[in-house]
Amino acid sequence: xxxxxxxxxxxxxxxxxxxxxxxxxxxxxxxxxxxxxxxxxxxxxxxxxxxxxxxxxxxxxxxxxxxxxxxxxxxxxxxxxxxxxxxxxxxxxxxxxxxxxxxxxxxxxxxxxxxxxxxxxxxxxxxxxxxxxxxxxxxxxxxxxxxxxxxxxxxxxxxxx
Length: 161
Description:
The protein is mostly helical. The chain contains 8 helices and 2 strands; from the N terminus they run ααβαβααααα.
């Protein structure tokens, strides 16, 4: 059974997933069923990863980003009996599920087909790891404001139809 690391971390902050998440997740996987960092057949288990973590987005006034396909990318994750490079942890969260990599789309292209050892040896990945996003409850007000500005710039709020 797959673990929902995003929901676990959000719960730590008193934030729950939208009841619409399962349908959005299914629709995203129908469109993008494979890990964006894997060669075909490299992994079996995948997760839908939020580029901007949904609990940060909700806490900072952008709850729409939890269900916004622009904010989603498919990455593999090691599960019981389904080994893989675990790009979700290494590229999506920079080896810490309490953090996130806002450059995950670029990282997925940069480390395409690489396994965990290759990724961790990369000087560029080590640099990203060293400056990874701080957990929400450790961010200053200034960091939160900068994070919100980055969300709004990259994914401007969409008007309802």
